[in-house]
Amino acid sequence: MRTPRLVGRGDPDVHQILCLLHGGTGSLEQAGRTARLRAGELVVVDGSLPCRGWLQGPPELLRALVVHVPRALLPLPPGAVRELLARPVALDRGLGGALSHWLTDVCARADEFAPADLSALASVTVDLLVPLLGRSHRAGGGPESAEDRRGVLRQRIQDHIRRHLADPELSPASVARAHSISLRYLHQLFREQEVTVAGWIRQCRLERCRRDLADPGQSFRTIHAIAARWGFTSGAHFSRAFHTAYGLPPSEYRELARTGPA
């Protein structure tokens, strides 16, 4: 049971994603709804609201996985999140099946990962989770307000940007054309998030570069090759942008990630 007192002691910026991956059944109550859960289903729980839940079945089969996801990493409008609370999402096929297998494998191999792997693991998890939740919301009845409609469109656009980061021609104009909207409307959608379209593209590219620079498995790539891999056409521009974002030049960041703090 998560009481108002526990909520007050927790992190209000975190959504909890409860994924039942094994045997047993369960229930979860939040936002005036009760979710009846079976093995292989996921449910979204808002960490800022009280809730209660329970599992049933043979003790040796009761296994649940809880993933804490920062609110900022779920680019869904508030109305969409409310509609997803305490509603089971099946993980038996498609993206759901891929997410289920991914999380199960990550947990099984938890002792094999190094600290430098964490950002890559988080990135893949969110890349699978966000479109799955977006589709589940649309399948459950779709947006209920103009705000939600804008949020769903913004999510589709952000998914498009993530898929095309490696394309050096990716730009606000190409994104607007791909979604049959005006450049002006595209900028309005992102202004609501207090970030420009170009700024969001740059942030995503920098984060992918930072992940690769910290990954020992990418040590065979030069810094220039990593930058080009994620759409940066100018090495000097990449170095300045990376230094501004993370406080270190790419070469120093890579060396620090390799050797660890002194």
Task: List its salient traits.
50% helix, Jelly Rolls, globular, alpha+beta, Arc Repressor Mutant, subunit A, 3-stranded antiparallel sheet, 262 residues
Short description:
This protein has 262 residues and is an alpha+beta fold. It has helices at residues 4-9, 78-84, 94-108, 118-139, 146-163, 172-178, 183-191, 197-214, 223-229, 235-246, 250-259, and strands at residues 14-20, 25-30, 33-38, 41-46, 52-56, 64-70, 89-90. It has eleven helices and seven strands.
Helix content: 40-55%
What is the count of DSSP helices, taking H or I runs of 4+ residues? 11
CATH architectural name of the largest domain: Sandwich
Mean pLDDT: 83
The major beta sheet can be summarized as: 4 strands, antiparallel
Query: How large is the share of residues in beta strands?
Result: 5-15%
Overall body shape: globular
Structural class: alpha+beta
In total, how many beta strands?
7
Rg estimate, integer Å: 20 Å
Structural commentary:
There is one protein chain. The chain has 262 residues and is α+β, with helices and mostly antiparallel strands. It folds into two domains: 4-142, Jelly Rolls, CATH 2.60.120; 164-262, Orthogonal Bundle (Arc Repressor Mutant, subunit A). The chain is 50% helix and 15% strand. The chain has eleven helices and seven strands. The chain has a four-stranded antiparallel sheet with strand order 6-1-4-7. α4 crosses α5 (146-163) and α8 (197-214) packs across α9 (223-229). The radius of gyration is 20 Å and the shape is globular. It starts with a helix and ends with a helix. 25% of the residues are buried. The mean pLDDT is 83.
